[in-house]
Amino acid sequence: MRLPSRLRAGLFLSVILATGVASACTIPVFRYALDRWEADPFRLVVPEKWATDRDMVKLLVPLRGNGTANLVVEESKDPGLGRAKWLFPHDDVVLWEGALDEASLATLLDSPVRRELIRRILAGDSVVWVVAATEGDREKVEHIASRLSFLEQVAELPAQNPDDPDSQLGPGPELRLKFSVLPLSLDDPAERLFARMLAGPPHADFVEKGTPFASPVFGRGRVLGAWALEELDDLMVEDTSLFLTGRCSCRVKNENPGWDLLLNVDWEGALEAVSADREADSEISSAAVAPSEMEASPVETVVIAPPPAEAPGRNSGLSRTTLAGIGLALIFALAGWRLWRVR
Predict the structure, then answer these.
(1) pLDDT tens digits for range 209-239
(2) Disulfide: which of 176, 227, 295, 320 matches 232 by Cβ 3.0-4.6 Å?
(3) Could you tell me if residue 299 is left (phi over 0), alpha (psi between -120 and 50 degrees) or otherwise beta?
(4) Which ranges of 110-233 does DSSP label H, i.e. alpha helix?
(5) 70: closest CA among 99, 38, 32?
(6) pTM of this prediction?
(7) Residue extents of the structural domains in the chain
(8) Are 51 and 57 in contact (CB under 8 A)?
(9) Is 45 helix (H, G, I), strand (E, B) or coil?
């Protein structure tokens, strides 16, 4: 399968520009996006009259203030608009339209798969392939996972120069090469809106038609594209993954292909927290292997020398003086015995 012409042209241009600035930026695409590309805000369009509705004002206050999701609330003066509409950041494609309450707002902002996606990105995954499929597509999903596992073993990240001011990493997880597959069931109503976001404006009909597809996600929830599983081959998986782990052209975000997901996370705060945890873990590890403040006492070597050799005979029963006395006594006794014989 060949890339769609629009995406193929975008990738080609990115590669050409990346080659031209290779000496200036060695950060991989996925990490450059995580460090520097803020997620574009989705638009929640509501009737202007809701501004005087106490319940609606209370419901929307968290979104207008210090909300963590990339979402803005717009008031429409259209008298025919009686319900809320949820739109893509730079497109008028309607993702959702209906009555807005706590339950529907919670579904718009969050879902289990989105939480897992955020967790993996903050853990350092380079690219997360979110595969929206059914139970019957398990073999295809497993094949994609197997291919990514192989690619992970043979691919390499660009060499990093810590002294290059143009290639400094921002706060966040350790830079590593990691691909993963995140399954999403097309039959799960809790993930239906997220599946529509993954398909993006180019393939808004994927979910309605029940078309299984895969979308590579990187950075702060950026989708490079969406491809039907029946058309997605190994070459597409490899080329896309290698592009995202290759050197970044360090260009403006909107000059690159793709679109953003709505994720309920404060990226700046979350990335700072990850860095703080890494530093704390590093300090603990260093303390665990550091030598003790008290130096070990030197090992004292004791040499046991043999006693000095004694003169021969000193300890052989009797001393020389005693022997001399006995000798003299024998001589005198012998002399006395001879004199007695002479008489």
Answers:
(1) 999 999 999 999 999 999 999 999 999 999 9
(2) 227
(3) beta
(4) 112-123, 138-154, 192-199, 206-209
(5) 38
(6) 0.77
(7) 5-39+111-274
(8) yes
(9) strand
